[in-house]
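Fold this sequence, please.
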Amino acid sequence: MKPHLAHHPRERGVALVTTVIVVAVLAVVAVAFMQSTTTDRLSSRSVANYTRAKLAAEAGLAVAEATLARAMTNDTFIVVANTNRQLFVGNGVGNSTDFSYTPAFSTSPNLTSAVAPIVTGGIPTTNVAGGILFTNAMPGGLSITSPAVSWVYLTDASGQTNARFAYWVEDLGGKLDLSVVGATNASDRTNARRLTGTNPAEIALWSLFSTNSPSDPGNAAATNLVGARSNLVTPATARLVEASVTTNILAELAANLRHDTNEPSLIPFGFGYAQEGSLKANLNTADLNSIVTMIDANLPAFASSRAGGLDGDRYLRAIAANVVDYIDTDTSPTTAGTPGGVDYVQGVDAFPLVNEVAVRYVLSSVDGSNIVLNRQPFVELWNPTDRDFSGQVEVSVTCNDNIVGALGSPVNFTAASTTITNVSVPAGSFRAIGLPAGDVTVAFGGAVTPPNNRRIAWAATNDGGGFTLRISNALVQSNLGSFQRRANGLFGVSGDALPLDNTNHVIVRGQRATSTGNVRQTGDPRAHVFRSGLRTTDRTGTDYTWPTYNSHYGVESSFGGRNPANSYTNLVEPLRDAAPGNSPGGSVAGIQTLPTAVLPVAADTNNVLQRIRNSPMSSALELGRIFDPGLWNLSGTAREVASGATAHPSRGGGFTLRVGQKEHPKFDTNGQRASQLLDLFAASTLPPGPGGAVRSGVAGRINLNTATTNALRALAAGVYHISDTDLDPGGTNFVVPATAVSDFATAVTRERQTRPFYTAAQLTTLTNTNGAGIFGNTNLLGVNNWNDVAAEEWFSRIYDLSTVRSRNLLVHVIGQALSPAAPTNVLSTAKAAFQIYVAPMRGTIGALTTNARTVVIRRWEL
C-alpha cells in the first residue's frame, strides 16, 4: 500500500516561511563570503605592501653596510660628524692634506658605483681642502643644513617606481660602552685613578652622574651599572637597573661594542707625511739610524727648526741616541761621530756626569827663591737619572798654570791628576771626589822676602787645561775649551802678599773650572757635549772661554747639590722642564774645608732630570722623557722657548721633548711639534708584523671626532697625578679639577669645529679660551711645581683611550612601499635599527685585505 502524504494548508505556509529563511541565510552567507574574500584580498595586499616596505628597508641596510665597508677598508680612515651631527667616513688623499668624505647616510639614487663615495647635492664629490668639514660655509657647500638625508627610489623590472628607502648612521664609538667603562666592581675605585691610561675600566662612568666632581665620590648609580654589566645587553636595559639613567644619560651610552685586537699602528693621513698609511716604527726595536731616517723622511723641518745653535743633523742623531739609551740595559752612551768633533753625539744613559770642578791650592813652603804650592783638584759627580750607578769611573783634571812672581818671569807648570775607581752614585745624588794632590813650585829667580817679593798672580789667559770623564772606558764628558784664568792674586790676602806665617798652610787659591761669572754652575750636564766654546765677557771685562772661570773656591763653590741659579742663569737652567727638586749645594764654608767633607743634600729620585727605563717602552708617550738637546738663548728660568728666541751655540739644556703638554711657542706649528713623533712611532712588545708593525687595540676607546660633551668629560675626569710625590698642592692624590675637565671637553669640541682629529696626538695643541694650553698648564690645574713626568701625566692617561675612528655603528633604516601609479602615495612603512660592527678582514699578521665585512650585533624593529 502506498503511503499517503496528506498536505494541510497550514503546513504549506510553514514551508514557505522556512524557505524564505533559508534563502535569507544563504544570502547572508553569500554576502559574508564575498566580504571575506574582499578582506582577504585587501589583507593580502597590505601584507604585500608591508613586505615590500620591509624589503626596501633591508635594501637600505645592505647599501649602508656596503658603503661603510667600502669606506673602512683600511686602518687610517676617520669617522667625523658635522655640526648637524651627520656622520661621514673620511679617507686621506695621498701626498696631500686633503680628505675625501663618504656620507654615512643615503644621499643619492646612484647605487652602481663600487668605489666612489655616494654623494649628491651639496656634498663635494672631490677632496675637501685641509680636511675641513665643520663650518657652516664649506668649500663644496657642505653646511649644517646640507645635505639632507635623501630617499633612494627603487624600480621594478618594468621601470615602475614601487619603493624607496633612506638610512642614516650614528657612531657608537662616541659613547660610553657599558660593557667595559667604569670601575671593575663596586668596592674597587682604584681604576678611577687612571693608573695606566690603557684600561677602559678607568674611563669615568661616574662623571655622568657627578658632573661637578673631580673624582669618583662613590656614585651609587655608576656602581650599580658596573655591578650589572653582564646584563646590560642594550643601553635601554640600564634603565631597568638604575632609575638615575635619564633620557639624556641614555643618549651617552652604548653596550656590547666590538673592538679590533689585531690593529697595526699606521702613520696617519692629514699632515702630508711622506710615509702616510705605512706602519709606524717600533721604538723598542729601532736603532739610531732608523729613528733618524723615519723623522727625516716625514718631518723634514723638524731638526732644522728645533736645533737652534746645534747642527740639525747632529740634533736629530742626539735625540735618536737618547731614545736608544733610554731603552737599552747598559750604562754606556750610544755614540756617533768623532769624539770632540762637531759631528759627535752621545745619548744620555744611566751614569753620573761632572757637575762641578774645583782646584784647591795650599801654601806648602817658602824656600829661598821658591814657593811651593800643594794643589788638589776635586770633581763633583751628579747622577741626574732615576737609576743608581755603580761602576768604573775615570776622571782626569789637567791644570796648566801660568803664575807670575814679582821678581821673575811667568812660571808655567803642568800637572795632571787621574783616578780610576769603582764609584757608587745613587739616583739623583751627588758625590765629590778628591783627585791625588801634588806639589808645584813657583821659582821667583831671587830671594822671596817680604813684603813685595811675595806677590804672585795667575795670568788672565787660556791655560789649555781641562777635564775628562770616562765611564767603563767610554768618554762621556769633557770641557769645551781650556781653563781660563782671570788676573788675580792670592785669595783673601790684601795686596796679594803671602802671609808672613808660612806654617799656617792656608789656602791661597781656589779655582772652580766649570763656572761662568759667578753663576756657580755647569748648567745641564746633559747638554755639555753639544755646546761649542762660548766667548763672552765676565764681570771684570775679561774675555774667557766657557765653561771656565776662576770663581773662588771658598766662596763660590757649591758642592753637595745642584748648582744654584742667579742672574747669570741664562746660560742654562737644568730644571726648566721639571720641579726644582734637588736643592742647591752649599759653599765649602771656608777655604780650609775639603769638598769631600760637604754633606750632599738627600737624594731626590722624584725630581731627577732624566728618567731611564732600561727596558722596552710600554708606550710611545715615553718620548716625553727624552732629553731635547736644542740650543737656544733663554733668559733666567724661562720654561718656554718663546717665538722670538734666538739660537745660540752654547746655551741650552733643561728640556725634554714636549709630548704631553703644549709645545714651545717657537715650534708650535705642523711639522715641528715633538708630539708629532707619536704619529711616526709606537711602542710594542708584540711579535712584529710586516716591516715591524706595531699593533694596538683597546676596548672602549672614545672617538674624539664624535664624542658628546659628557663622553669627553668621562674620558678626562678622575685623573690623579701620582708621579710627583712633592706635587704642590695635594701631594700624591692631586686630581685634575672639574673645571679643567670641562675646559678639555670644550676645547675638543671647539677644535673639531675647525678641523677633524686625524690623530689623538693633536690633543696636545688644545688651548682654553685664553689661548693657554690645556695640558701642562699649572694655572689651569692649580699647581705651582711639578716634575716633568707629572706635567705630562694627564695627557698620558687620555691618549691611548682616545681614537679618531670607530667600527661600531648604529644604522637607522626606513623603507616605504609606493603606489606605482602615484609614487608619492605611501602604501606601507617599515622601520628598523641595526647595531653593526664593520670588521676588518686581516691576514695572520694583522695586514688588511681589500675587504671588510659587517656583523649585525643586534636589531630593533620600530
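The chain has a mean pLDDT of 76. The longest strand covers residues 389-405.
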